Amino acid sequence: MPTEILILAWAAVLLLVHIFTAVFFKTRQYGADWNAGARDAAMPPLGAVPARLERARDNFLETLPIAIIALTGVVLAGRTGPMTALGGWIWLGARAVYLPLYWSGVPKVRTLAFLVSIVGLGMVLRPLLHG
Fold first, then answer.
1. pLDDT value of residue 47
2. What residue numbers bound the domain in which 54 lies?
3. Contact predicate 80/3, CB 8 Å
4. Is there a contact between 92 and 60 (Cβ–Cβ < 8 Å)?
5. pTM of the complete model
6. Looking at residue 19, which CATH number applies to its domain?
């Protein structure tokens, strides 16, 4: 199995971590009845930590489709190699670091982790764009 597909499998695991972490803290604030209910009622604004976790999840969801396209694309095009695998791992590692940084409210370093993840995606996309 190509490394790039393994990276996508771990990205799915990271997405589950994002989803369940955000929902856990949101449920702590709103309660189990909210979680198990229809969620039709307007709720007060989220506290700082649950709101940050939702934003971190949303940010991950912004780059995940790009990663899926890039990592799947290099596999389908037969353009995998050490650089695409390294780029994929850099993207995934930076995205994994991003979650606790955002959770903790760490500014600037969180942005640096995001930028590193974009560099990783660029490394994966390069063989597709420069044939």
1. 95
2. 3-129
3. yes
4. no
5. 0.94
6. 1.20.120.550
